[in-house]
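Exercise: predict the fold of this chain.
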Amino acid sequence: MRRIIPMLFIITLIMAVGLMAHDEKEHAKPDSTPAVTHKQEQGRLPGLDDFPSLHPLVVHFPIVLLLIAPGLWLLGLWSKTRSHFYIAFTLGALGLLGAYMAGSWFHPHAHELSDEAQTVLDLHDQWADWTIITAGLTLITMGGALWLKQIGQAAIRVLGIAALVLGFSAALCVARTGHYGAALTHIYGIGPQGEHLEGHSGHEH
């Protein structure tokens, strides 16, 4: 039974993420103008080089990983199964790496924004910074709970609870970051077809 519950928990999380993405697509306003680039008109499907930024591709990894990691850590605390802790630590580490890459190497640079859109972009970046900070602190406390056995069981339990709180804080931060990122894309039109991104002049239809 203890093995079945974690699997159900993971499957539920994956389905929830998928449903949220599907819900965004269904509620998007239909566009009568086909978004076809010049290269697509020539019969070639778009490749990675056709995108003005790979940020959307990279950023979804930390979103998923940082949401799942604290859930697995909680399951480890409940079931006393040590493997859950190691998996949670690994997912958290990968999530932190992905968040850093999305916010630095693959961060798109926007220009010619309205004041309101710039405010939302600033909030997006601030919450992204808090995501990296809380995810880093989560890894430190997770690592302490896993490998600093000499500090005693009581201290390890405190670190385990702290890691749980920080992990869910990181999940909240990445959710807020994604919220403002989605607002920039779907409300302010920053990013689709490269609009308002440096190095891209936009498409005319």
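Check your answer against the key: The two ends are 57 Å apart (CA to CA).
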